[in-house]
Amino acid sequence: MRILQGISHNALHSNWTSICNQIGSSQRKLSSLLEQGIDQNDQTLREILVQINRMCRAIALMLENKRMLKNDVEIILQQILDSNSTERKRRLPREKVRILENWFADHFQHPYATQQDFDELVHLTSLSKTQIRNWISNKRRKERSSTVSTELLQALNKSPS
Predict the structure, then answer these.
(1) pLDDT in tens, 102-122
(2) CATH classification of the domain holding 63
(3) Looking at the 3D structure of the chain, how many domains does it have?
(4) Helix 115-125 vs helix 94-106: angle between axes, to the nearest 10 degrees?
(5) In this structure, are 64 and 123 located in the same domain?
(6) Is 104:136 a contact under the CB 8 Å cutoff?
(7) Which candidate, 19, 17, 13, places its Cα nearest to that of 53?
(8) Which residues, 6+ apart, have CB-to-CB distance to 146 below 8 Å?
(9) Distance between CA atoms of 51 and 15, rounded to whole angstroms?
(10) Tell me: the pLDDT tens digits for 68-103?
(11) How much is the pTM?
(12) One domain, residues 63 and 107
């Protein structure tokens, strides 16, 4: 995003407005001269046409720069989206999951990590504290939902039909 910070939208808009105003002024002068029936060989007319030609080239360059900038922004945004999507799909390595599952099994009755547990798991797995906290939280949620389901099945089996 730092690339985009260097681009001054106001400066581009100011240049664009200035060029458009100059073109408008030149077109009005040209229309006025043509209405007066000035000869096409007149020096003033030639100067106006040269100015209009220069401004048209400047506008073409600005439009090309705008198109290139738009393409660059689209590429940067796509790269950001691609990097975010690959990060979200990534799973933890199996050996690290085994360590976490062993901890969870050992603490099944009270699966809430203390600071000491976090420090130990961070050391054993090389994962961040946030990753470990999220994994334990997700595991508790999954266990809770599967436990409720088995308890519900048992209750349904016991109920008279």
Answers:
(1) 999 999 889 999 999 999 999
(2) 1.20.5
(3) 2
(4) 150
(5) no
(6) yes
(7) 19
(8) none
(9) 16
(10) 888 888 888 887 777 765 555 678 999 999 999 999
(11) 0.41
(12) no
Tokens 């939902």 belong to 145
Does residue 102 share a domain with residue 51?
no
Alpha carbon 83 to chain centroid, angstroms: 10
> Which residue reads 């691609």 in tokens?
82
Q: Smallest Cα–Cα separation from 120: which of 102, 93, 142, 144?
A: 102
Question: How far lies 29's CA from each of 25, 44, 52, 108, 151, in Å?
Answer: 6, 10, 11, 87, 89
3-state secondary structure 98-113: HHHHHHHHHCCCCCCC
- Give residue 129's domain range: 94-158
Q: DSSP secondary structure string, 20-46?
A: HHHHHHHHHHHHHHHHTT--TT-HHHH
Query: In the listed set 89, 110, 133, which residue is the last one of a domain according to the structure?
Result: 89
Within this chain, do residues 55 and 116 fall inside the same structural domain, yes or no?
Answer: no
